[in-house]
Design a protein that fits this description.
Blueprint: H1 3-28, E1 39-44, E2 47-50, H2 56-75, E3 97-98, E4 101-102, H3 105-114, H4 120-141, H5 144-147, H6 151-164, H7 166-169, H8 193-202, E5 204-208, H9 221-231, H10 238-248, H11 253-256, H12 282-291, E6 293-297, H13 306-320
Antiparallel strand pairs: 1-2, 3-4, 5-6
Helix pairs in contact: 1-2, 4-13, 6-13, 8-13, 9-10, 9-12
Keywords: Cell inner membrane, Cell membrane, Electron transport, Heme, Hydrogen ion transport, Ion transport, Iron, Membrane, Metal-binding, Oxidoreductase, Repeat, Respiratory chain, Transmembrane, Transmembrane helix, Transport
Subunit structure: Component of the cbb3-type cytochrome c oxidase.
Cofactor: heme c
């Protein structure tokens, strides 16, 4: 935080606290010249205002709140760049800088651990690792074929899925436009346990270039989209689809196969079923052909670690293999 904003926040905070104290003193002191309990000369709708002070217990509660606020701001960060007497931090977000110069975050974090400068977040993570680490280690030592039969492991995997995967695939794992449905048996790269784990560990980077990177003219797009609809069993114009088949043979088969059933080694989708990642209307299919598609799933091995990925793998597999 810059010095300007640090001073701005600090001044505003101090002014508000001081203002609350002054206002409380004024309210409790009879500065009006009217005897306590007497009318202030104001009335509205038959209700008359009297000069009554705040109840003592209420005033003391406000004073205690102000004292608590001052003590808290002295002990903990809250006034701009002031770190507080305890030097407490909630996270290690700023641990990767040294006097405004970026340094290696991993090395800085390791140095903080060695000097016992861990933030509350780091301590809680260390405590959780100490408590739950052996449990996940036992899960990792269990073959996936056995883990998918463990109800408790699947519950753990389900919670991890909700925390980390549901943002894209949905809480019910049925996906949305551009994000695969994990509850059916349609898999771009394969739905066996080993492949699912590989996908989770290393991520996936699906890429279809515009027009497949082929010499397809704009005038061919409509026919090609019609042929794709024919492949999936939809109602189509036979003559237009026949034209599109010629465009398909220019090279689309290199990824999708001569039978258009896709290629799991490349992640190219099966065009003969009625499962669509982005939509199966003529307009959306044409859009996919013209602009291409790029789908990225991040690698989770460095984010969650293999132990947690192992459990999520069992859970994802169970979704389509009841």
């Amino acid at each position: 935080m810059s010095n300007f904003w640090s001073i701005w926040i600090s001044v505003l905070t101090i002014v508000v606290i001081a203002g609350c104290f002054i206002l409380l003193k004024l309210v409790n002191n009879n500065y009006t010249g009217v005897e306590e309990g007497k009318s202030m000369g104001h009335s509205f709708d038959g209700i008359e205002e009297l000069n009554n002070p705040l109840p003592k217990w209420w005033a003391y509660m406000f004073y205690l709140t102000i004292v608590f606020g001052v003590i808290y701001l002295a002990l903990y960060p809250g006034l701009g760049n002031y770190k507080g007497l305890f030097g407490w931090t909630s996270s290690n977000q700023s641990i990767g800088t040294d006097k405004g110069i970026k340094v290696d975050s991993a090395a800085a974090l390791e140095a903080a651990k060695n000097e016992n400068r861990l933030s509350q977040y780091d301590r809680e993570v260390a405590h959780a690792d100490e408590k739950y680490g052996p449990i996940f280690a036992a899960y990792l030592a269990t073959p996936l074929e056995e883990l998918v039969k463990d109800p408790e492991a699947l519950k753990v995997g389900g919670r991890l899925f909700l925390q980390n995967c549901s943002q894209c695939h949905g809480s019910d794992a049925r996906g949305s436009k551009g994000f695969p449905n994990l509850t059916d048996d349609d898999w771009l790269y394969g739905g066996d346990l080993a492949t699912i784990k590989t996908t989770l560990m290393n991520g996936r980077n699906g890429m279809m270039p515009p027009k497949g990177g082929l010499p397809i003219e704009d005038s061919e797009i409509k026919g090609l989209a019609e042929y794709v609809i024919k492949l999936s069993g939809g109602e189509h114009d036979e003559a237009l689809a026949a034209q599109g088949q010629g465009s398909f043979m220019k090279g689309c088969f290199a990824c999708h196969g001569m039978d258009a059933k896709g290629n799991k080694f490349m992640g190219s989708p099966n065009l003969t079923d009625n499962v669509w990642l982005y939509g199966g209307s003529r307009g959306v299919i044409a859009e996919s052909i013209i602009n291409g598609r790029a789908g990225v799933m991040p690698a989770w091995k460095d984010i969650l670690g293999e132990e947690k990925v192992h459990v999520i793998t069992a859970y994802v597999y169970s979704l389509s293999n009841k």
